[in-house]
Amino acid sequence: MEQQKVYWLNGTDMTLEELERIVQGVWQVGVSPEVWAKVEASRQHIERCIAEKQVVYGVTTGFGKLADVPIQQEDVARLQVNLIRSHAMGVGDSFPVDVVRALLVLRTNALVKGFSGIRRETLQLLVDCINRRVHPVIPSQGSLGASGDLAPLAHMALVLMGEGQAEYQGVVMDGAAALQKAGLQPVQLTAKEGLALINGTQAMTAVGALATLEARRLGLAADAALALTMEALGGITDAFLPELHSTRPYPEQAEVAQRILGLLSGSRLTTHQGEVRVQDAYSLRCAPQVHGASWQAVHYVEDKLAIEMNAVTDNPIVLPDGRILSGGHFHGQPMALAFDFLKLAVAEWANISERRTERLVNPQLSNLPAFLAGEAGLESGFMIIQYVAAALVSENKVLAHPASVDSIPSSANQEDHVSMGTIAARQVRQMVHNSARVVAIELIAATRALLMNRCQEQMAPATLRILEFVTEHVPFRLADSSYSAEIEKLAEVLLSTPIPMAHSSFQEGI
Fold first, then answer.
1. Catalytic annotation, pick one of 7, 57, 168, 282
2. I need a surface site. Which of 336, 444, 478, 485 has the fewest CB within 10 A?
3. Topology of the domain covering 208-501
């Protein structure tokens, strides 16, 4: 049996692709000796400050508004245990396993940087939980996104203490039982460790990172759906020519236009300017501008995630020279703004996709059969599939309201500005999933239109491959029937598997 690859955490250069492989269980994680040396040096500074009875936030003081309350030396360990128990107040549905795994990986990656003062044995238990698939049950609601994701991360830390609940081998059980079944022992937290575990942005970053990975695939699926719809409607390809897009040189816009021209290469279904009509509707003609702008937002978020995934996000920070400084690295505003931006991008992919679906089913907007029905009147065909897309688009518009513009003071006004970044992250992932359903609907409708007219021999090789991909998951049938299960299935596939393109160059922009 081939040995599983180990990804060596160092807190400096983890990518989205690497995170995804670890989350999926393709790779395990490890910590190299030079990284352990930094972790242990950081811990020594904490031990020194306790021995010297220094006043350090969260180590020899209380938390939040209670930062001015001194803690006796004999109580510093008890302080950390109380912190975890009192902060594990999350509510609502639990995060799915992929989010929990991403959260564990990202928190560990931040701690290995050696600025948090955690002990080796505590950090090792985090690593072991990732590799042995002990997944804390973490409620998804209750974080303000500053001081970090306190409630979600406290539920994670409970399991390390042998408390709370965890999922192991598909069964939810007590944290202590999950550790025992995995051959692990809980830890007794000591000074600074509870704070080191929960003061960070890893819940919002985990959700947002997974949403961004899915958004990349969604964007490619939206481009593929556009290409199929172009053929189904006899769209004009002149609007995608590079000499046109060079005059407004947004790289992502040009990439989308190039991708669509590549997908449509060899098609005998598309048209040129003036052959049938002079211009197409905006949902076809302006798609490079709209899709391209959404890709711009994705790239912005990717840049911010590259920083956040490899950053120190707790407080206080233990510097290599021994100073322990209080600051605000736990504040999620950089990610809150990024995820709110991504929400707009995702919403627009769905908005314009739904408009193209409308053109496919509305007989006043095309020469296709009304609602793509076999016997219009007796059958309703795809009348309601457009309703579903419209409902999802409308739901996205509600979710797209920026979470980051809200702030409610907490901890007796000591923490008087918070990011709501975890809400933004949860919203954007829901919007990605909604939008995948909308794009799946366009793909299904365009495929139906092309098959009804027996257009396969006139299609471009690349779009024919996309059509075959769709029909593998959604078999063609003309009679009225429910497509709910197929829409869900295709949407899930679009988010987990890059839609097949004719050439690897069409993957540009992801």
1. 57
2. 485
3. Fumarase C; Chain A, domain 2 (1.20.200)
* CATH architecture under which domain 6-200 falls: Orthogonal Bundle (1.10)
Q: Using DSSP, state whether 472 is helix, strand or coil.
A: helix
Burial class (CB in 10 A: 0-12, 13-18, 19+), 412: exposed
| Tens of pLDDT, residues 274-286 | 999 999 999 999 9
Would you tell me how many other CB atoms lie within 10 Å of the CB of residue 268? 11
| pLDDT, tens digit, 9 for 90 and up, residues 317-333 | 999 999 999 999 999 99
Catalytic residue check, 7: no
pTM over the 0.90 mark: yes
* Across 42-56, 161-175, 227-241, 271-285, least confident range: 42-56
Integer Cα distance of 402 and 214 in angstroms: 20
Cα(497)–Cα(112) distance, rounded to whole angstroms? 32
Whether the Cβ atoms of residue 329 and residue 314 lie closer than 8 Å to each other: yes
Question: Could you tell me the residue ranges of all domains in the chain?
Answer: 6-200, 208-501
Neighbours of 12 (CB within 10 A): 11
Two structure tokens written together for 140: 């998804």
Query: In whole angstroms, what is the distance from residue 19 CA to residue 43 CA?
Result: 27
Taking alpha carbons only, the member of 507, 488, 489, 487 closest to residue 499 is 507
Using CA atoms, how far residue 3 sits from 40, 124, 169, 460, in Å, is: 29, 21, 21, 43
